[in-house]
Please model this.
Amino acid sequence: MADGLSLDRRHFLVAGAATVGVVACGPAEEAASPPPQQQPERVAEQPKPAQQGGVLRVGTPGTPSGLDPAIMNNGEAYILNMNTHDNLVYLNPRLEYEPQLAESWSSNDDLTVWTFKLRQGVKFHHGKDFNADDVVFTFKRLLDPETKSAIRSVVDPIQDVTAVDSHTVRFTLKGPHATFPALMAPRQAAIVASDRTPEQLKSEPSGTGPFKMQEFKPDERTIIVRNPDYWQADRPRVDEVHFLVMKEQGAQAAALIGGSIHMMFTVSMDVVPQLQSNSNTSVEVKESGAFTDLVTNTQLAPFQDNRVRTAFKLIADREALRQAVFSGFGSLGNDDPIAPIVPEHNDALAPREQDVAQAKQLLTEAGFDFSQEIVLHNNAKRPDHQALALAYQEQAKQAGINLKIERHEDNVYWSNVWLKVPFCIVNWQWRPNIDELCSIMLHSEAKWNESFHKNAEVDELIAKGRAERDPTQRKAIYGRIQEIVSNEYGLIVPFHWPNINALHKSVQGHVIHPVTWLDLRGVSVE
Model:
């Protein structure tokens, strides 16, 4: 096999992430970026805490939306899945892709065939031995339109997947793909057992991960327990994890300070000062490419007209919105999902600034009815949604727009509101692999193309970008995508926010992840 890019390597680096700040947790540090042909060092193993066992309690604002990895669609489901399932490839906190259920991978010369050697001696929670059939089953499900997986467009480059032997899998692609192993890491690509029925996957999840599902009570709690047969002998380090639904941030903060919970998933800036100043708690902040966007549906009135979409973008005072929602943390956005932290970010694209007069002119030219009420839908359990909605509502008044805020409960928002209304707010976890990010939300056929804008040039550029080995050429390709998306799509991206974790002082071994994940396999509690 040819040694192109990361070929026949046990793991590879796709991007560096800088820590913007660690509050009450020591100095910031930079992630090393080794030369492309040099194998990066593994993440240093955390010193094994003396304390083992016990219960780790995590406060969450909502409940997991779906237990089947292929079709789950919210942050709570992702963190549950991360701790109960494994992928072929794992994205570590230094943004290196390293082996998980795959031990190694290699490619042919033209990057159209990739072969993965699988880990042996691994069992699913229900007792089945892990083998190549499970990998084939998992990816054929993802590719099947009937599954309705959100990442079908991400794995679409796969022409076929076959078992070479019990622990070797071969992926044949439709065309060359320079970073294909990275497509094994999305949470929806977690490996599931080939002997499970669709109903079992939805109601009785069984992965190979460090924890096993024990109890699932929507809008109340989810309990996972130690997997005694986990293939990493020193993991996990607690006996149980309880994800407790606590809808109010103030209640979560009080519980964290008092020690009745140990971690918070999704931290509002409203409670950060309180947690920073308390001796029992600490707050960690790490730069990320995550973002919260205001989405206009280009197929629904009044947003079919690009002049209206552009006007709504020009209304936004991005710095004011960033201050209102994240107290100035993070970086400003430019109405596309590719953040400044990403190497392929288009630095030459002029940042869009607020221009209320131009917004009014465009709306008038488009025949916009200023007397109509525009509803901005948002999730009542997401603190960033609330702050962004209120701040943008005030800015919209300057342009004469009557904006009404409508709040929805978390358990109905992702199924009955998002992708169904003209104007709403969405928060996105960062996907460092740029092909995954573009394929999952910008491609014409993407299930999560939330503004419903179709552009044939973008589709062609996505295919071209995944085949390109040269970093300079890749940057140019994705730079053009950003230009089109910023100017045509129905996305208003005012800022990219950092990952913020809040911990009780009793928590040890936690490593903050740039991708807003909570990987709890190495965490212990005093």
